[in-house]
């Protein structure tokens, strides 16, 4: 084969190769069997947030949705408010949160959460505690993906900090309030990247600064694996309570999440990946289902996909890694963490 032919084939294959981690993340791969009795829903990848919450009355319930001004978070807030919940919607600035809250029908309250600033996280939790006696749903949705060069917050790789550590502090500061609800639910919005893109050995505890061999997709995958592991450990700690914790992958949805990716990669995803992508209303369905459905009152510690529990295996069920992540996250955020509940 001549060099130019080889090169041409490589160029033709490049877009498909580039799209693989995202598109393959849509499929379920080799599923482990679900334990008997886990509720299976009639919903699937085509279901929308409105469809999965049809007939569910959330009047009197409260929710916090982080990242309410864009994409999946906006649709989640809109639909929870539509069903009667009082939704605290967080944005990185008050004007972003206020604009988003004002643009949906129902009872919403804007709140500022900048996840790179743990003081902002603590202040938001304290604001919410002062406004309500309990919190029924904490939806850790805000996130960033694939920063092209290494960025750090307090010496920690930024995606890990924003996607995991900031929410870890938020959860800890609201846990007592969530446990005050009759059946509080914590929902961590993870991704198929937790399986497909995370480092082979799982969380690189010796490289949380990201300085060794930084790769945008791997760092994103690691932060999303952290969302799943944090959920596992939280569910274990909450096992004797009425509070549940679950993680989910929303699917592949065209939102602003691709803003840090090279434009050619976004193009590939939006075009080649089209048959596999969901709309935003479909992308918010699993979040709204896990947050509200009465059948999930006792379902905790699961990773959901397309509105159903999902067991892709790998590190997503590694209890030892989950416990270590919790311990290290607590150490890294020691100055901002409260132990408001004995779990
Ligand atoms: N879209 C997908 O295909 C997909 C697939 C798998 C998983 N997910 C997950 O779904 C979640 C929502 O993503 P999306 O697709 O809806 O993306 P999006 O449209 O970009 O929304 C992300 C939200 O997070 C907020 N955010 C970003 N950095 C933040 C920070 N430092 N502090 C506080 N908030 C911050 C953004 O605020 P600004 O607008 O002010 O930046 C925005 O409100 C993310 O956790 C993502 O990892 C998405």
What does this molecule look like?
The protein has a single domain, classed as Rossmann fold. Helix content is 42%, strand content 12%. It has helices at 3-23, 49-52, 71-82, 94-102, 118-131, 158-179, 193-196, 216-237, 263-271, 280-283, 285-292, 319-332, and strands at residues 62-66, 86-91, 107-112, 137-140, 152-153, 156-157, 185-189, 244-249, 303-305, 308-310. The strands form 2 sheets. Strands 3-2-1-4-7-8-9-10 form an 8-stranded mixed beta sheet, sandwiched between helices. The protein has a two-stranded antiparallel sheet with strand order 5-6. Helix 3 (71-82) links the parallel strand 1 and strand 2. The radius of gyration is 19 Å and the shape is globular. The site of NADP nicotinamide-adenine-dinucleotide phosphate has 28 residues, from helix 3.
Give the averaged pLDDT, no decimals. Answer: 91
Largest sheet, order of strands side by side? 3-2-1-4-7-8-9-10
Task: State the CATH architecture.
Answer: 3-Layer(aba) Sandwich
Number of domains: 1
Summed up, the helix count is 12
N-C termini distance: 63 Å
Low-confidence stretches: 1-18, 24-28
Radius of gyration: 19 Å
Record field, number of beta strands: 10
Distinct bound molecules: NADP nicotinamide-adenine-dinucleotide phosphate
CATH topology: Rossmann fold
CATH class assignment = Alpha Beta
Strand portion, in percent?
A: 5-15%
Features:
343 residues, alpha/beta, Rossmann fold, eight-stranded mixed sheet, two-stranded antiparallel sheet, 10 strands, globular, binds NADP nicotinamide-adenine-dinucleotide phosphate
